[in-house]
Each structure stands twice: as C-alpha cells, then as structure tokens.
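Predict structure. Chain length: 339.
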Amino acid sequence: MTQLGRSGIDVFPLALGGNTFGWTSDEATSHQVLDAFVAGGGTFVDTADGYTASVPGNSGGESETIIGSWLAARKNRDAVVIGTKVSTHPRFKGLAAPNVAAAADASLTRLGTDRIDVYYAHFDDPKTPLAETAAAFDALHRAGKIRAVALSNYTGARITEWLDIARREGFEPPTVLQPHYNLVTRQPYEREIVPVLEESGVVAVPYFALASGFLTGKYRRIGGFRKIQPYLSVVGGLLTGKHRRDKQEFGGAARRILASRYFTAAGLAVVDVVEEIAAARGVEMATVAIAWLRDRPGVVAPLASARTVEQLPALLASATLDLTVDEKAALDKVSGQLG
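Prediction complete.
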C-alpha cells in the first residue's frame, strides 16, 4: 500500500481505470474485472462523469453507473477508494461553481455513495476564474462530499496557481494530480510538473500508463499511419451511427488510432527494450512498463485499464516487480531519446 500524498488515503500502488466500463466492457464483464482487481489486492478505482459519452449509444456517466451497481451488489464501499472527475459530461461541461456542485451530486447518485474519495478537475477551464473553481471544490470538501481535491491534465503553472489560491484563501489544496505520462511520453511531466510536485507534496497517478496498448507490443505490426487508415474508416462509420451497436469494434479502432502516435523509430526502440527485459524476467511487457512508471518521481499509483479479467494479472504484477538498476537505466536511456 502507498499513500495519496497529504490526503491520508492509503491505496494499492496501481489504480484501475474505469474508462472501458460501459464501452468495451459490458456491466457483467466490468463487475468481473472489478472483482478480480480487488481479489488481487487492488483498492483504487478511477472513473469520470464523462466516461464514455463519445461512444455511440452512450450519453455519459455509464462507467460511474456500473461502478455504482457493483458497489451496491458487493457492499464493499469502505474497502474501495473511488476517484472520479468533472468537466466533460455533456450536461456538466466546464468548471464553473454551479456546474461543479451539480456534477458532483450527479456523480454521487450514479455511484450510489455519499462521498467521492478523490475528485478531479478533469481538464482546465480557461473560461472560469481559477479562484471560483478552487472555491467550489473547497465547498464540496467542507460538505464532506469529497475527501481529496485533485487535478487532471493541468500544467505546472496552473497547478501552482491553484495551490497559491488555496493557500491565500484557506481552501483545501489539491493533493493528487493525474497527468499523461509513460515510457514514450515523458514530457512535459518530468520537465515542468515534477518540480511543482516535489515542492508542494502533490502526488501523481499517471494515465495512459501503457500508451494506449503500444507498450504491450500488441500493435507493433501496424507500422504507421498508412496501416491505421482502415481503422479511421471504421471509427468514421461508427460515429455516423451506421454501426451504432458495435462498441467493441469502435473501441478496438479507437485504441489503435491512439497507439499510432507512438509509431516512430524511437518509440519502437522503447518497445524492444521493454520486451527484452520482460523476456529476461519472465513477465509480461505491460508489467515492466508499469513497474518503471511506478518508480518515477512523484508517482504513487500508475493508472491502467483492463477490458477483461485476463488482462489483469500483468497489471497487478507491476505492483510487486522491482526493476534492477541496470534495467531502469536501459529504459531511461532508450525512452530519453523521445525528449
């Protein structure tokens, strides 16, 4: 177990992403994944009110609803740490104070709980004064509706600004950050955000730990944009409603497109080193990639998703795999080529 900074909340050093729930994982499968995660020692489940409104046939909040039905069925609310986010649900866009309050209540209803353990401002809202948003989160904390204030996708400068406002106004400060960070996306996290975290005591729960599956090696043969084009066509057809019911097809295409951004010589070189280490240690590539991330400055619990129960063991194993000094150095060197 590890602690989420100053929040005092203890969590297993791997967070389970709920972005597949209600998308590529139906309710029954999602419940199975959650059961297996908890059985493997997991405690920290991550979602958002906007998951996954962009998927054909969805309207937003599907992931929270599924997690809520699981909590109700298992009666294990006190044993699980729930993190969710505000600003992307179609009915609750942005971070104006009335919207934050209404969105939090809607999330609490979908989750079937009286408090959110970790509540994130999902994306910065430049249209709303930061002091207004910080006050809204503080009000939720004072009301006992959230335990920890958190940020996602914020720059180092904006994190500092929020912390300064909290200090000046006596608001509850952010204690957790969810940034985009992995072996093939090291900046701007290391350059701009780590110094802020080290000074403030805020801790990181990075998402895209496996770079949309790229670091597992399963998309290695896609090779480049030319071979991604057929998947773009699939997604285009789904968005028109032509294949509205096929969320699985949509999900597979979307992940391949996201992974395609990493298909460079430098990116594939990282995959090669991950594979070499995994083979030598007798573990999955995903285990190595997340173990490296878990050991990075500021990181307390990398975030990864599992569409099926079969994908979970490799993720859970990352919490106990300690890479050697030489293995870390090899990964640092090859991934450092990406800037």
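Summary: Residues 138 and 170 are 9 Å apart (CA to CA).
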